[in-house]
């Protein structure tokens, strides 16, 4: 008997993802991620198919787990190289302390991202080819648009690699489209 993964209720999952974005992502990733998460959850709020709902929730839980594990790995790496800390003596109830802590955590996130980019570490993960095979044309189109939006956040080497992958993805999508007959353009004169 295979063990089943416990699914988080959709609203709780939605909140946890946005919270993870707020805590672990740099501002430019957060803006993009929050908008995408909100749009996807809104788009799927009226879905009735239980299998589709389970797949949707499982994929978003995997995403949440990836963000949390990446953040932990990056935090451990950042701690080893230079340990930026927030003073535990700062009172969490003081508005000034909260503003200072927020500024420090923003600076920490930003410096962590800069370290990741400088070290050539990848942020995120490659999409499993089996998952790409299961995607509809609309989903592939959305993925392409997302990829275009995130291109400004990569190094030139990553952009070259993305261009190659993009060309392969477009070839794959073109192969799935049935060959169409050339449309005949007749020049019929309008009748009066």
From TrEMBL:
Region named Disordered: 78-110, 170-192
The highest taxon in the source lineage is Eukaryota
Record localization:
Mitochondrion matrix
Q: Which UniProt keywords apply?
A: Chaperone, Mitochondrion, Transit peptide
Q: Does the keyword Cell cycle apply?
A: no
Write out the GO cellular component annotations: mitochondrial intermembrane space; mitochondrial matrix
GO terms of biological process kind: mitochondrial respiratory chain complex II assembly; succinate metabolic process
Role, per record:
Plays an essential role in the assembly of succinate dehydrogenase (SDH), an enzyme complex (also referred to as respiratory complex II) that is a component of both the tricarboxylic acid (TCA) cycle and the mitochondrial electron transport chain, and which couples the oxidation of succinate to fumarate with the reduction of ubiquinone (coenzyme Q) to ubiquinol. Promotes maturation of the iron-sulfur protein subunit of the SDH catalytic dimer, protecting it from the deleterious effects of oxidants. May act together with SDHAF1.
Instruction: Show the PANTHER family listed in the entry.
Output: DC11 ACN9 HOMOLOG, SUCCINATE DEHYDROGENASE ASSEMBLY FACTOR 3, MITOCHONDRIAL
Per the record, the similarity remark reads: Belongs to the complex I LYR family. SDHAF3 subfamily.
UniProt subunit comment: Interacts with the iron-sulfur protein subunit within the SDH catalytic dimer.
Q: What is this protein called?
A: Succinate dehydrogenase assembly factor 3
| Source organism (scientific name) | Dissophora globulifera
The taxonomic lineage of its organism, from the top, reads: Eukaryota, Fungi, Fungi incertae sedis, Mucoromycota, Mortierellomycotina
